[in-house]
Amino acid sequence: MGLLEDLQDRSGKVCEFCGSADTLSIYEVPPVSTGGFDGSVLACSTCIGQIENPDTTDANHWRCLNDSMWSEHDAVKVVAWRMLSRLKSEGWPQDLLDMLYLEPETLEWAKATGEGVLEADKIVHRDANGAILENGDSVVLIKDLKVKGSSMVAKQGTAVRRISLDHENAEYIEGRVDGQQIVIITKYVKKV
């Protein structure tokens, strides 16, 4: 069986959020989703559209989270937490958020996209030129960097693809150089 069939079995062939049976598809839960059964949900086009585009979010549509937030699957709970966080100014979502418990690693996954954090409080990663860095971006080192704990030196001009951001410190990103995952300080990179 494929992933779609597995998710259909798990959900009963309905959207795992609102219960709709129309236009269902697989939604991989960001940031850099592992995909597969544990990193994906089966959702309708309405839910996916509103998840991906906050400007189209209809608070009343998401009242369905009152039921779906209790799913036994972490991917469903992560998206429920993000949507409730996005909508908490409405009042009722805050009550549901107060009831929703996520294991620490699941909560870290839920917070990874910055959903629910005020714009003024969000950590913004910038390269040496001030360009905003995002998960998955490619950067180039602008200086030779000695890698702590090893004899390796990451040379100037080295491209680092598919970076990931440190969600606690705006000065740090992670990337793979010469097959080794390293932490890089943002002031030594330039976005490609």
UniProtKB/TrEMBL annotation:
Gene3D superfamilies: SH3 Domains. Residues 6-52 form the PhnA protein N-terminal proteobacterial domain. Pfam families: YjdM. SUPFAM superfamilies: Prokaryotic SH3-related domain (SSF82057). PANTHER family: PROTEIN YJDM, PROTEIN YJDM-RELATED. This is PhnA domain-containing protein. It comes from Maribacter flavus.
